[in-house]
Amino acid sequence: MVKVLGILGAHQADGVTAKLLQGVLKGAATAAETELINLNDYQLFPDHDNQPNPDLDVLEAKLLEADVWVLAAPTYLGSLSGVMKNFCDCFRNRIARFNAVGEAVPDRFKNKHYVTITDCYAGGVENYLTGVTDATFKTLDKFLTMGGLIKLREIVVTKTWGMTSLTPAKQAECERVGMQAAHKRERDDNTVKRYIQLFFMIAIMALLTMGIEAGIQQFVPLNNFWSYYGVFVIIFYVLLASILHFFTVVKHRRR
Predict the structure, then answer these.
(1) 111: Cβ contacts below 8 Å, ≥ 6 apart
(2) Which are the contacts of 189, defined by CB distance < 8 A and separation ≥ 6?
(3) Is the alpha carbon torsion for 38, 42, 47, 53 positive or negative?
(4) What's the pLDDT tens digit per position in 36-85?
(5) 100 to each of 62, 105, 108, 144, 243, how far by Cα in Å?
(6) Kind of pairing between the strands at 113-119 and 68-72
(7) CA 174 – CA 245 distance, rounded (Å)
(8) Which long-range contacts (CB under 8 A, 24 or more apart) does 168-175 make?
(9) Is pTM, for the whole model, over 0.85?
(10) Is 81 exposed, middle or buried (0-12, 13-18, 19+ CB in 10 A)?
(11) Nearest one of 92, 103, 156 to 128, comparing CA atoms
């Protein structure tokens, strides 16, 4: 049976962040074994002088046993909360092995899956436009992908000042993500999907480029190969840059 491990990195054990995590675990419990750990219950400090931290040993065993990790931490001052950040810092030398030149190499946790959760006081529009929660997700993604983990989903709640409970829609979303996590695929099949998406993206861009170029020729004749090629490259580049900007900057903003 799949095991889903929830990791709470917040100061409050019953705050909004905890409720989000509990919602995901509730959904996962329909088809998986679940467990929730509160990082505040552990004495977390880095291993020193070949003397491992016993609490890190306990956490490592739990993480190895789990198939899916669900990490939940609030966003404070535009960044990851200190409780979760301290865990990432202390566990950094355990989530991956480092080669002779200091490069992280995925090891024992490779191909496990993860979900990340955060919340903030900022409103949805502000978060969408300025990316208040982006730093939190990026820090967690960098830490987890360093160990070779595969991302499933992320969840964000905005405007949490004074909030004491989740909206029905957000509760349903959390439970839905939990159910999906409980049925995660053993192998990551995103590579084939991305190649198919890339093929269609290039095909559409090439068609648009040729159409724009045909329109340009109505006003500026392109009588030789190099002029036609040069205009094609410029148009294709502008379209590609615009699409990449949209998906990596605009569409990736969380609300």
Answers:
(1) 148, 149, 150, 187, 188
(2) none
(3) negative
(4) 999 999 999 988 877 889 999 999 999 999 999 999 999 999 899 999 99
(5) 28, 11, 18, 21, 39
(6) parallel
(7) 29
(8) 170/20, 170/23, 171/23, 173/23, 174/20, 174/23, 174/24, 174/26, 174/27, 175/23, 175/24, 175/26, 175/27
(9) no
(10) buried
(11) 156
In the chain the domains, ranked by start, together with CATH numbers, are: 3-188 (3.40.50.360), 191-250 (no CATH)
Q: Which residues lie closer than 8 Å to 214 by C-beta, 6 or more apart?
A: none
CB atoms within 10 A of CB 144: 21
One-letter amino acid at 171 equals: Q
Amino acid at 191: T
Nearest to 188 by CA among 106, 84, 249: 106
pLDDT tens track for 213-254: 999 988 888 888 999 899 999 999 998 888 877 666 555 556
Helix (H, G, I), strand (E, B) or coil at 73: coil
Q: Whole-angstrom Cα distance, residue 43 to residue 55?
A: 6
Query: Which residue blocks in the chain are alpha helix, DSSP H?
Result: 16-28, 54-65, 82-95, 124-130, 134-146, 168-182, 190-216, 225-245
Round to whole Å and give the CA distance between 40 and 49: 24
Tell me which amino acid residue 157 is: V
| Residue 185: half-sphere exposure toward Cβ, Cα within 13 Å | 7
- The shares of helix, strand and coil residues in the chain, as percent rounded to the nearest 5, are 50, 15, 30
